[in-house]
Amino acid sequence: MDDRYTIINHVVWRKILLCAFNFQRIEDNHKSWLHLYNLQHSPSLPHERLSHCTEVVLVNCCIGDEGAEILANTLNTSILENLVLDFNISDSGAIALAGCLSKCSAVQEVSIECNSIGDSGATALADALVHCTSLRRLDLQGNSLGDKGAIAIAKAAKSLPNLDLYLHNLNITEEGIDTVLELRTRTRIRSMELTSSWDSVSETDVDTLKNAL
What we know:
The chain is α/β, with parallel strands linked by helices and 213 residues long.
């Protein structure tokens, strides 16, 4: 039996947790998954179960920064491969996760899109990226980081030659875009997608940026 559980739009939290955390290890590779989507209240996160997960997907689950801190202190950094926390956290949560990710040499995908992560959270994540030597995909689109955060991420990405980096719809200025583009030419990352929010950069500027990339 596959131990992958996807729980969508349930209201009875006790039943959700009974299903979601009834993990069974796959005999061949001893991997476990947790997938939860669109919860109206933050679920309880059992430490023992999470420590066996190679993949954690919590999308719009109201875990908040406190939940991110629990994850950071609980996830098994030696086996974690994929982490998706879209629509959940702000700077404090990102800073807590950065401490965890700095030890995750096996992580391949990190998606924290559409959160409220600003420059301080992005800078902390950038400091952690240099240790994520297996990282293949980083998605930060739809967050609040500006020039400082985007530039920090771009600088950190230079040590990750196989990285696909997504930086859509950020609060960056034209000057910030120029700096990130200049850094892009000196990095070894596989691909980068970058756009600014429409109120920071004109449509013409965004079209020019897309063509440059």
